[in-house]
Design brief:
Zinc-metallopeptidase; metal ion binding; Peptidase_M16; metalloendopeptidase activity; two-stranded parallel sheet; Metalloenz_LuxS/M16
């Protein structure tokens, strides 16, 4: 059953494959599913039996309790779990050594460089090609967060209109934010039979050039309306306990622990000016911006297989670097610091 699930990954849609490759390039200490599939036939029941005590020999707990429960009850419950695991006469676990705490580290792309990674689609019968055009911007910061969020809100509909409705590149056309363990950016995700990924990449840059003038020409009233719309979205009440818990658990699991994030970002938005947003765009997102860090993941369907060969072999353009081997690339790049890896008790 597990083997079948891995084998089915080759039938993912091309845009899903592009998103997977993007994560594989950016996230340190991740392993490709092809390698895991190769190992599966060699895993025996006895291997799992031996793994369980090894897995539990040293452990670290992160807990979050929500719902109809008193503070003292939650603490008592966690203490009981800790006592069973760590304090028994024959404890199941020992605490992790400080050096063993896991970290989540993301590759830091170089300023002024557009990296691109071409790949053939796994399913040879799929005609669709796909592009993920990712722009890496900053490490979690309240002021930069709201600038990025406001840009994404303002640009989302024009991007869909131009790239999907006008140019008809493909039914799957998104502009959305990306957050890799606290490293933030935006990404265009487009799947198409009309054009190959390299051509779609050019259309994304053409859109950004066109949007630049719209951003400059935006009236003060339109700017304020967009700011207020984003504030209203942030102040919406959680729809249910699951949604609220998801917010707190993300802060814990990523390691940022900014539990007042919504209120702090609303305060930052109220202070934001239109010129600050324009400056942010010019520094980080505008085509040719000296600080811009971008990565294009291009997955080629069978309609564009000849273009894959060209993309793979032609010399890269100035200020562009082709990634030929993901793991060599990851080893060659510096990493952002991890929010994860601290230890100790933190109470809300």
């Amino acid at each position: 059953m597990v083997t079948k699930e891995y084998q089915n990954l080759k039938f993912q849609q091309p845009y899903q494959q592009a998103m997977y490759y993007c994560s594989l390039i950016l996230q340190d200490r991740t392993w490709p599913w092809m390698e895991e599939l190769e190992i599966l036939p060699h895993v025996e029941a006895d291997d799992l039996a031996k793994f369980v005590p090894l897995m539990l020999s040293r452990a670290f707990l992160e807990c979050y309790v929500a719902g109809n429960i008193e503070h003292s009850e939650a603490e008592s419950m966690i203490l009981h779990i800790e006592n069973v695991l760590f304090e028994d006469s024959k404890p199941i676990c020992q605490p992790l050594f400080p050096s063993q705490h896991l970290t989540n580290r993301i590759v830091k792309l170089e300023k002024g460089i557009n990296y691109f990674y071409p790949a053939e689609g796994h399913n040879p019968s799929d005609e669709n090609s796909a592009l993920v055009h990712y722009i890496q911007v900053h490490r979690d910061d309240l002021v930069l967060n709201v600038k990025l969020q406001l840009f994404a809100l303002i640009a989302k509909q024009p991007a869909f209109h131009q790239l999907r409705s006008v140019e008809q590149l493909g039914y799957i056309t998104f502009l959305m934010q990306r957050n890799d363990f606290g490293i933030r950016g935006i990404q265009f995700i487009i799947q198409s039979t009309a054009k190959g990924p390299a051509q779609i990449d050019l259309r994304v840059e053409a859109f950004l050039k066109m949007f630049e003038s719209k951003l400059y020409e935006m009236t003060n009233d339109d700017f304020k309306n967009n700011v207020n719309a984003l504030i209203d979205m942030k102040l919406e009440k959680y729809k249910n306990l699951r949604e609220e818990s998801g917010f707190y658990w993300r802060e814990i699991s990523v390691g940022t622990r900014k539990f007042d994030r919504r209120e702090s970002e609303v305060a930052a938005l109220k202070q934001l000016t239109q010129q600050e947003l324009i400056d942010f765009f010019n520094e980080n997102i505008r085509v040719g911006a000296p600080q811009k860090k971008s990565l294009s993941v291009r997955v080629f369907g069978n309609l564009h297989s000849s273009k894959y060969t060209a993309d793979k072999n032609e010399p890269a353009q100035p200020c562009s670097i082709r990634i030929d081997d993901i793991y060599s690339f990851r080893r060659s790049r510096p990493l952002y610091g991890s929010f994860k890896g601290t230890f100790g008790h933190v109470k809300l």
